[in-house]
User: What shape does this take?
Amino acid sequence: MTLDTRTQKQRMLAGDLYDAGDAQIQADLAATREWLVRYNASLGATSAERHRLLVERFAAVGRGAGIRPPFHCDYGFNIRVGEGVFLNFNCVILDVVEVAIGDKTQIGPGVQILTADHPRTPAERESGLEFGRPIRIGRNVWIGGGAILLPGVTVGDDAVIGAGSVVTRDVPAGATVVGNPARQRPSHPGASR
Assistant: This one.
């Protein structure tokens, strides 16, 4: 049996079970809360000023990417947004592991992107340990308001997710999904995407 010598943060970033009450993780959460206070006070700022704030905290921010406050996330440093990405008001990203959003993706208001997960068995859950599964969203995706993306989901390029949909599994490139759980709509001959 090998002793796991990784820090709780290293375990979190690897998507393994970790203790969210760990001092370093709590310090990272506190730093993000301080950043969020500044970011969410920037509604009247220019898009360039808000972009500079995103660059301070996110892993990567493409040219022309923007997020309308209020916005909420756990850490920020696990979020990568491509060029021209847009998130409307009241989006939430629980980024215990990587969230990658491709170029030109448009995300409606109130969307939740949730990488945080919990053990399924009561005994493991009672231990208080958590884990995360990354979410990857392709380029030129449109996600309607109020949609929820669950841990581990990948959304292909050019996909559409209908407003209020709950995405529980991967979405193929070019597909349109709607509902709870989100299901692919049949394509119709001659329909434009």
